[in-house]
């Protein structure tokens, strides 16, 4: 797996930096495109539902669930 790729997203009016592996970014981008949403909008949805989990972890879990759903 390649190193982390950092991106900035605007969540609820605040700039937030998020570092994920490129493979996770690719899954998130595909999910956003499929839903007709921006990547920032998808990450906002993940952020709203993550509870106590760190945002990067929540994004990875979301991406893993997306990949698993696509494999079935």
From TrEMBL:
InterPro entries: RHH_dom (IPR027373), RHH_sf (IPR038268)
Pfam families: RHH_4 (PF13467)
All copies of domain Ribbon-helix-helix, residue ranges: 5-66
Protein name (record): Ribbon-helix-helix domain-containing protein
Organism whose genome encodes this protein: Caulobacter segnis
Taxonomic classification: Bacteria, Pseudomonadati, Pseudomonadota, Alphaproteobacteria, Caulobacterales
């Amino acid at each position: 797996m390649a190193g982390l790729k950092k991106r900035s997203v605007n969540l609820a009016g605040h700039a937030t930096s998020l570092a994920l592996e490129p493979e996770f970014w690719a899954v998130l981008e595909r999910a956003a495109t499929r839903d007709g949403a921006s990547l920032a909008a998808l990450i906002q949805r993940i952020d709203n539902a993550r509870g106590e989990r760190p945002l990067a972890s929540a994004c990875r879990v979301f991406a893993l669930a997306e990949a698993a759903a696509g494999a079935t």
